[in-house]
Structure formats: structure tokens, C-alpha cells
């Protein structure tokens, strides 16, 4: 596992680091992406290890934000993704940020984000993702008819993947249930079908020795045991890259800041600390 496994654009973001530090950070980013769906807790640890080494790099903070979101740490996810937006000016993660607001029990803020000028910059998939979050926020507010209108207004041309098409249909089924149209919702779910991955057929007449179950998934642990050692560091401790930097302060461009040439660090800030309460168990997506 090397930095070469990263996308070329991501590798370019790490050029301001020393070669050794870039290699280590790159390995953590690779593992974060690899484990995000299968082991979000370990993915989060890898992302945090990368932040401690290169906290001023946008792709590092992006990985930390997405890992926190997947783990249900919505307040932290919001802080990290706001930092990413300040670093690179992109609003591509606006749907995730809006859904994190829902997860914190603040559907009105999710709707505010959906109405922001940044929402107009999203691509087709991003617009569809945001529409699904808006539909969920309307459901949270008890506005089921409005939620259905949002789902039905999604242009078919914007739903370009089978996975996204299934998700749109799934949200529509949830909205139909909320409207009391349970027969229509059930029929839609039949069309979607249920995954068969968990169905196991065992012939009880076979000898027990002939029936084996194997786990083909090999999930790697933190590279060079680094996550385990870094996770034991005290909060706020930065290993290898200088003092932590608050997110609220303007963040320098890692390419132009001389101190970042040997690797920089930033710790997640307390952005919006007065309103980011402990996350609820709700989440639209």
C-alpha cells in the first residue's frame, strides 16, 4: 500500500509535505477510503492520524469529515467540511453538510443550506443528493406532501446511476408511507427488491464437515501500527507537524506557507460550538 494508490489530484495536494510525511499521510487516506463502508470506526482513526500530520490539506480534512459523518459524528463532520470549503472554495459536500444538520435535529438549517447560492454550483448527482436530503427534512417537519413534491421534481436526467435511482425510489417509498399510501409504498419496494446477500441455503442432510463459512473480506489495520500509537496521544497533541491551528483563524495555503513544506497540522476546530449539540440517531441518507 503506497501513495501511488491515490488519485493523481489527491497526490498533488500532498506535494507540500516532505516525502516521508506525504507517504504516511497517503497510506492513511488510502485506508480511510478502503474502510469507510466496511469499518467506519477504523476509517475514522486513519483519517484522524492523517489530520494530525497534515491538517491544512483539504483532502485530509475532507476524509476526516466524511469519516465522521459515516460514524454519526455529525457536529464534527460539519466542522471538518466547513473547513474544507474554506480551504478550497468547493461546496461539493453541501448535501452531506445538510444531512448532518438533519442528524443534529435541525431540519430547518438543512433547508437553508439547500436554498443557499452554493447549492447552484452542484453537479447533477449533487443536486439529486441534496433533493433527497430536502425531502427528508420536510418529513422531519411533518410536511409529507412537500416531501413528495420534492422527490417527484427530481429530473430523470439527473439520476444517472442505478444506485442513485434506487435511493430516490427508496425515499419516495418512505414518503408514501408517511402519507398513508402504504400499498403504493409496498409495491414500490417490491419493484426495488430486497438484497439477497444475506440469504444462505444449507442442506441439513449434508455432513457438518462439508458446510464451511469463510470470510473473504480482509480488512487491513492501520499502517505500521501508527493509528494505534497516535490515538493514544493526548487531545490537542500534534505529532510531527508543529502546533495545532484553530479552524476559525484564516488558514494559509499549504502550497505557499513555508512552514507547511515539511508537513503541516491542524486540529478540528470548535466551529459553530454553540449550536452543534450531540448528534441524534436520525440521518436522511
UniProtKB/TrEMBL annotation:
<dbReference type="InterPro" id="IPR011990">
    <property type="entry name" value="TPR-like_helical_dom_sf"/>
</dbReference>
<feature type="compositionally biased region" description="Acidic residues">
    <location>
        <begin position="205"/>
        <end position="218"/>
    </location>
</feature>
<protein>
    <recommendedName>
        <fullName>Tetratricopeptide repeat protein</fullName>
    </recommendedName>
</protein>
<feature type="region of interest" description="Disordered">
    <location>
        <begin position="205"/>
        <end position="285"/>
    </location>
</feature>
<feature type="compositionally biased region" description="Low complexity">
    <location>
        <begin position="225"/>
        <end position="234"/>
    </location>
</feature>
<feature type="compositionally biased region" description="Acidic residues">
    <location>
        <begin position="273"/>
        <end position="285"/>
    </location>
</feature>
Amino acid at each position: 500500500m503506497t501513495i501511488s494508490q491515490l488519485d493523481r489530484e489527491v497526490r498533488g495536494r500532498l506535494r507540500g509535505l516532505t516525502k516521508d510525511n506525504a507517504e504516511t499521510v497517503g497510506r492513511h487516506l488510502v485506508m480511510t477510503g478502503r474502510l469507510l463502508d466496511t469499518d467506519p470506526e477504523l476509517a475514522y482513526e486513519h483519517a484522524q492520524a492523517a489530520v494530525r500530520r497534515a491538517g491544512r490539506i483539504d483532502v485530509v480534512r475532507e476524509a476526516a469529515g466524511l469519516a465522521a459523518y459515516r460514524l454519526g459524528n455529525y457536529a464534527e463532520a460539519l466542522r471538518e467540511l466547513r473547513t474544507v470549503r474554506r480551504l478550497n472554495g468547493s461546496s461539493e459536500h453541501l448535501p452531506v453538510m445538510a444531512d448532518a444538520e438533519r442528524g443534529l435535529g435541525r431540519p430547518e438549517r438543512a433547508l437553508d443550506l439547500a436554498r443557499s447560492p452554493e447549492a447552484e454550483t452542484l453537479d447533477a448527482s449533487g443536486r439529486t443528493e441534496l433533493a433527497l436530503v430536502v425531502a427528508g427534512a420536510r418529513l422531519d417537519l411533518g410536511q409529507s406532501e412537500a416531501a413528495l413534491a420534492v422527490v417527484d421534481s427530481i429530473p430523470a436526467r439527473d439520476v444517472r446511476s442505478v444506485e442513485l435511482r434506487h435511493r430516490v425510489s427508496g425515499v419516495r417509498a418512505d414518503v408514501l408511507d408517511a402519507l398513508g399510501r402504504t400499498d403504493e409504498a409496498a409495491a414500490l419496494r417490491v419493484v426495488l427488491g430486497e438484497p439477497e446477500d444475506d440469504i444462505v441455503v444449507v442442506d441439513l442432510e449434508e455432513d457438518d464437515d462439508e458446510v464451511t463459512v469463510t470470510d473473504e473480506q480482509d480488512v487491513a489495520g492501520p499502517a505500521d501500527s501508527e493509528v494505534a500509537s497516535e490515538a493514544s496521544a493526548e487531545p490537542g497533541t500534534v505529532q510531527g507537524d508543529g502546533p495545532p491551528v484553530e479552524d476559525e483563524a484564516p488558514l494559509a495555503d499549504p502550497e505557499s506557507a513555508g512552514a507547511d513544506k515539511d508537513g503541516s497540522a491542524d486540529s478540528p476546530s470548535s466551529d459553530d460550538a454553540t449550536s452543534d449539540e450531540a448528534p441524534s440517531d436520525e440521518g436522511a441518507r
